[in-house]
Design a protein that fits this description.
The complex is a heterodimer of chains A (459) and B (581). In chain A, 22% of the residues lie in helices and 24% in strands. In chain A, the strands form 7 sheets. Chain A has a 7-stranded mixed sheet, sandwiched between helices. In chain A, strands 15-18-21-24-27-30 form a 6-stranded parallel sheet, with no helix packed on it. Chain A has a 6-stranded parallel sheet with strand order 16-19-22-25-28-31, with no helix packed on it. Chain A is elongated, with a radius of gyration of 25 Å. Chain B is elongated. In chain B, the strands form 2 sheets. A 7-stranded mixed sheet of chain B has the order 3-2-1-4-7-9-10, sandwiched between helices. Chain B has a 3-stranded antiparallel sheet with strand order 5-6-8, covered by helices on one side. Chain B starts with 7 loop residues before the first helix and ends with a helix. Classes of the chains: A alpha/beta (459), B alpha/beta (581). Chains A and B meet through helix 4 and helix 10 of A and helix 11, helix 12 and helix 17 of B.
Chain lengths: 459, 581
Amino acid sequence: MHKILEFQVVVLAAGKGSRMPDVGGSVSKCLLPVGPYPVLWYPLKLTNNLIFSDVMIVVLDEDKSNILNALEKCPLKIKYELIVIPSEEDWGTANSLKHVSARINTDLLVISGDLITNINLNDVLNLHRKHDACVTTLFFNNGPEEWIELPGPKTKSKPDRDLVCIDKETERLVFLASASDFEENVTIPRLLVKKYDALSIYSRLLDAHVYVMKHWILDYIVDSEKFTSIKGEVVPYIVKKQLTKPNNLVEKKGTSEKNAEINKGIFDYAIETGYERKIREISAYNDHKHGNKGVYFNDTLRCYAHIPSKNTFAIRVNTLSSFYLSNNKVLSKWQDLTGSSLFERFHPNSEVKTKQIDDNCTVGEKTIINEKTSVKNSFMGSNCNIENKVRLTNGILMNNVTIKESCVLQDCVVYTGATVGTNCSMQYCLIGPHHLVPESTKSNHQLHAETTDNMITLG
Amino acid sequence: MSSNEIPPKSRDEIKAARQAKKAAKLKVNNKTTENPQLTKEIENLNENNINSKPKVESTDEVDKSVVINPNAVDISTSREQIKADRAAKKSAKQLKKKGAADGESNVQSSVKKELKEDDSVKQNEDMTVKDVVETLKNIVSVAKEVNEITTKVSALDLGGKKQEETGKSKAELRAERRAKQEAQRAAKQAAEKKVVKPKLEAPTVNVDVPKKEEKVIKSKTLEKSKTKLQLAQRFNWFQHLYTEFDKNPLKKIPINSNLHPAIVKLGVQLSSRVVKGSNARCIALLDALNKMVRDYVLPAKTEFSRGLESHLASSLEFLWTTREPCASQINAVKFFRHHLAQLPNNVDEFDAKKTLQEEIDRYIREQIEMAGEAISIAVRNKISNGDTILTYGCSSLIEQILCEAWEAGLQFRTLVVGSRVSPDAAEMLRRLCARGLPCTYVDFTAVNYVMKTVSKVVLGAGALLANGAVVSAAGTAGVALAARARNRPVLVACHTHKFIDSLYTDAFMHNQIGDPDDLLEKSDDNSPLKDWRSNLNLTPLNLTYDVTPPCLITAVVTELAILPCTSAPVVLRFKLSEYGV
């Protein structure tokens, strides 16, 4: 039987990881390893749990083959389709959506490719359905990020913060802006204060970059051509537009048709085909108690934001700290995240000769761990070679890493193809891709990368 | 314990018991330092004596019928028995009353000594000896059962208990109850170890005990099924209604399943009560069906009506799990199915869709919109200038009637009655005020008071049953009753598409359970209902509908005519011929 899709899923995985430290060479964000699988696997698994049948993944041109390879090795039951966008041009998320718009003919669920969470997305979808919203977003209120000592040079990174204003009772999103837009004072439209008696303003929410959108919003994005980013431009614009009244349709018809087409505003896209308006009018439901306005204050545009309870696990792997943190936690949350226990911590093709390897480790394909090594709490990608007498604690090794004899690595992240010479002792270090660390190096909080001729010391 | 029927011998026994009691009391008075527990103990003993009397009676009766002359040997053996029994009883009691002071046992023993003496006095009297033996045996068995039952109570569930109880005679049951009571009291004393006022429980014992027993068992079973706590916390009489307020089906909605998105959306809106009110639900259902028909793609080699029918069935099955259908929805579905079945076999897909969509539009236009206008005009003719109209809750039709009457230039005042639980009436008030009608809002509790100023009562309806009863928002029946008490005319405005040919006379059989949390005063943090989920003895019940009997309704205003309630079957027959069902 022919299915009528309710939502189509687009996973945006073309991020370059601009908030990650520059380690030289290109590392695509969606392929960073978290536990045994790349980051991209987790949002796909999330949609898989909801029985979405097929998913569109927007990826960069250069990463396509790598991603295809990586996803082939992961257990996934869904059909996915990679859609390539050129890597040279710096496309925003809205541009990516425009690119795929031709394939989308239903409402849209946009998921960021770096989200790791155990939330049931149905809650978000139900909120969307319940109020017939035009955009529904997802925020997490998990308190400030845990502080852990990070590898690499110490930096003072200032996380981007959003000001999010939500009507607590109805979960309606009424105000959204980036905190960096304001100096000292924040001006909130007076209309908001008039409308709602209790608004909650959050500044430390984690935006999950999950958007449920009506199809006409995509049309609007395509036609208006002024948006580049969903989060930065589209959603704040729509949230703001909730407050304005649609221009009188009758007046518009009076003007010439050409003019009308040019001036086509967002309200001209929000057309309801059926009896929705009448149903809203005669249903005894109302979402607010005071005032003499009808349900939803007679607004045509309605944005909602779902904030799940505090104990949901959610991380967006877009900074070094979240990347490191997610690796720290992923195994303990495995059951929650994927709904199944992790069977193969050690890939069947790997050679683990040492006995001193604890339960919090994963080993990738064709990786060789020699005897007399001690490995704790570490994740190893494929084709790694760890020689004798190496001690490895809290480390993340990506693919093709070689660690020579008698090294001691603690809290280090070793990127693809790097080699650590014999007898090195490193703590909290980042080792860039294809970098070769000379023998007997001792370092602490440093970045070893090819960006300069020698290693640079910033910390 | 009717003392009249007690034969003289047992009367003697009572006297003996009284003497024992007195002696015990005296002793207790002497030992004033010892706490009143003792007196309670003594009362227990007395109770035992008193309680054992019915058995004495019964045995007497038996003995009367069968005359026995027990000889000396019998007596002596019986004496030995008595002593043995007493020892057993003492030990059992002491075990039970671990918390009791040592002095108690002294008192006990002294009381028993006197009992003994009494017994010895009565030895000559053949029957009483036997009786005493019987009673003491009973006591021993009681003591045994105390242990049994304390273990059982902790281990047994209700079913097992019942089974066991059915196997026992009345006397046994009584003994058992007494034993349980004693066990409970012992436990209580052990727990409290405090000075407790001696309660005069003796006469109420038999009433009290079964309740306590039930409670104990109930709480035990509840503890066992802690996972089913929600299930247990349901009102017993309405057990059959608790099906829909599980929000779980919403969590499991399969995405991109065969259901049409509009159906899924409607399901969510129905269960979250965003779409409520029978007209709104009916239109919303038809609108969703309309979209479903529009997007329906006929599978190959299938007849249109058959293919759509199966699709419709699965969609409706999903929708009814989110909320039970109301009368207007049932009728709308009936209508839709009728037209679906009417389609010719070889109909073109496009034509069929067009026909169905037109029929849906026509239904909404004729049955709801135009009918609403007709009703509005009919009621408007009944409203005169200077009237005060009372209405209850929120009804889209009443809103339409009042607003149109106001716009037609009639001068009247509206009294909106609402209950605290449902925000509907406030919504009604808001809508009327927004249109400029002079309104007054009163709470349901004030209905009687304001009724004397009211000239007409106009009510909305959720459904009209074949017997003329009106199913409407909970509270409507109360308003109608108050109006009848003051002899005010009650008009029920109801589209004929809400007439339904089912019959029930009370709100118990068919109803819907609302969200129990609506009963809470949300702004009040100290609300006693706040933690009702953790209190197993507290069950909030929020019924959605009630049934107003036809005798309270003056007339029903439909688009056909203003009818008495009793004409409902006529309307139903008329509708049936219209559908051709």
